[in-house]
Design brief:
single chain; mainly alpha
Length: 179
C-alpha cells in the first residue's frame, strides 16, 4: 500500500508541476501577445506619422501648381478681353492654348480625394489594431485574475495590464492644412 501511495503522490506532483508550467507558459504567451499587439499599434501610428505629412505636402504642391495655372489663365483671359485688335486677340488666344497644352490635366481634386481616402484608411488601421490590443489585454487579464492561473500569476509577479487609453490630445481631431 505504501508503495502505491508514493506512486499516487508522484503522479499528483507530476500533474501539479506540469499544470503549473502549462499555466505559466499560457500567461507568458498572453503577455507576449499583448506586447506584440501594442507594437503593431505603434507601427500603424508610425505609418500615419510618416505618410500623411508627405501626402499633404504632395497635394499642396499640386494645388500650388494649379493655382499658378489658374492665375496664368486669368491673366490670359484678361488679355483677351482687353484686346483691341484681332492680332491682340490672336496673341491672347495663343497664350490660353499654350497654357492648356502645357497643363492638359489638372488633378489636385483627385489628389485631395486620394489624401482623404488615405487619412481614413490610416485611421481605420489604427482603430483595428487598438481594438485587437484591447482584446489581447482582456484575454491576458482574465488569465491573471481567474483561478488557478491567478495563483501562478501572483507567484510570477504578473499583474493585470492597462487597457488602451487615448491621451487628452486625442479628443481633438488632427488638422490637415492644405494652405
Amino acid at each position: 500500500m505504501k508503495k502505491y501511495l508514493g506512486l499516487v503522490i508522484g503522479i499528483i506532483a507530476f500533474i501539479g508541476v506540469t499544470t503549473w508550467i502549462s499555466i505559466g507558459n499560457s500567461l507568458n504567451d498572453a503577455q507576449q501577445e499583448c506586447e506584440s499587439q501594442w507594437s503593431q499599434v505603434e507601427n500603424v501610428m508610425q505609418r500615419r506619422y510618416d505618410l500623411i505629412p508627405n501626402l499633404t505636402a504632395s497635394v499642396k504642391g499640386d494645388m500650388h501648381q494649379e493655382q499658378k495655372v489658374f492665375s496664368e489663365l486669368a491673366k490670359a483671359r484678361a488679355n483677351y478681353n482687353g484686346a483691341k485688335t484681332n492680332n491682340e486677340k490672336l496673341k491672347a488666344d495663343a497664350q490660353i492654348n499654350v497654357i492648356h497644352e502645357k497643363y492638359p490635366k489638372l488633378n489636385s481634386d483627385s489628389r485631395v480625394h486620394d489624401l482623404m481616402v488615405e487619412l481614413e484608411g490610416s485611421e481605420n488601421r489604427i482603430s483595428v489594431e487598438r481594438r485587437n490590443y484591447i482584446q489581447r489585454v482582456k484575454d491576458y487579464n482574465k488569465l491573471v485574475r481567474n483561478f488557478p492561473s491567478s495563483v501562478v500569476a501572483q507567484s510570477k509577479n504578473m499583474h493585470v495590464m492597462n487597457y488602451y487609453q487615448a491621451n487628452s490630445q486625442a479628443y481633438n481631431a488632427p488638422k490637415v492644412d492644405l494652405d
